[in-house]
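Dear colleague,

Thank you for sharing your sequence with our group. We've completed the structure prediction you requested, and as agreed, I am returning the results in plain text so they can be pasted directly into your records. Please verify that the sequence below matches your submission; if there's any discrepancy, let me know and we will rerun it promptly.
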Amino acid sequence: MDNPSLEFTKDARVIMLLAAQIAKENGSATITPEHILLGLLRNPESGAMQTLRILGIPLATLRAQVEERIRLDSPSPLLPGQEPAISEDTRAILREAAGEARVRRLSYIDTSLILLGILLNALLPVSALLRQNGVRLETFRDNARFERPENDAALSNAFPQKIPFPKSADPQAHRRPTAGNPPVEISSVFISLGLFTIIIAALMYFSILPAKLGVFLFVVGGWLISLCLHEFGHALSAYLNGDLSVAMHGYLTLNPFRYTHWAMSILLPMLFIIAGGIALPGGAVYINMMAIRTPGKRSLVSASGPLMNLAVLIVLAVPLYLAQSSSSAHGSMEFWAGLSLLAFFQIVALVLNLLPIPGLDGFGIIAPFLPEDIQFAAQSFGRFGYLLLFALLWIDSPIRAGFWSLIFRLASVFGVNPLMVDIGFSLFRFWS
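Please find the predicted structure tokens below.
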């Protein structure tokens, strides 16, 4: 089956030609997002530029800044006789433009959609330049002027009227997602991890494994499963609310090796629970929040991870409650101690995730309702969020005391016995 394609409007083809010309003039082997934006700024009559003028954007200042970025850039050199190729970042812009077109039921890409594609790729430097000059995604989206396609033989010969997308960038995939179409594929890694944890639990239940080894392996396996489910919650919610890139990144496979930073996502949280019983939030999936249209939906995406922790906690709490309600609970003591410790870690992770600290889900829940300047300032602080969290929990203070008091109150609510948690932690730390 042929790959689907979207038609460029006349002005959009002009922009792409200008971008290619700018790339050539600067000896660049690729057409970068900077070239695309400068091409837009050099075509003042396009729909995108008309919208920017209406919004009062300082176009001369913006153009000078883009030209300066291009001048300072060190591109891959363009060889004699070579034509500039579209860079991966530019392809990402066109994919987002195609997705926006599909949502709007348009069969073409115009200059406004190209500019929206830049804004939706929020981590690109040109996207940051637009924001610095007052171009806001939602404001532009609400005021955008869309063009109709026009045939022009000269332009069509110079640049294709339609742009083909490879299957990995199939714009048809950008249709509005529904609950029935998330491409969830459970990885063999997650299935193996689940089977391993279940087998260890069974061996513990019947006292076949040494108590300390059994508790350690069970809690580590269960904790890794909960990390995968936490991030899967974020990814699934993001997909259902508009960010289809999570599927391309493999975040819907429950495979921990697909996370952005494996060491920070898995290894660091594991070291923390081993060293001090602090269940740090783990996992790192990149969500393009700009692709999610409303503040409420962006907030829901951030909340979906902690909600998954809550679901895991409830699943663990049910057998604990039934065991406490029964006069003759079956299974070994180490099994119930390990289950209690794993449930306790879920409570700690749930509370930590909900703290309103940049970099954590709690801040992500409230961030969409804050001014954009505060949101972007908080993003730059986010990398230090873990350090602040570590300091709050490590240093003896009223904050630390209040935190652990809340944790044990919640443990009581969910029927997690503190004595069994203590026994479980003693067995878990088999080396001490």
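Summary note from our side: Residues 295-325 form the longest helix (31 residues).

Kind regards,
the structure core
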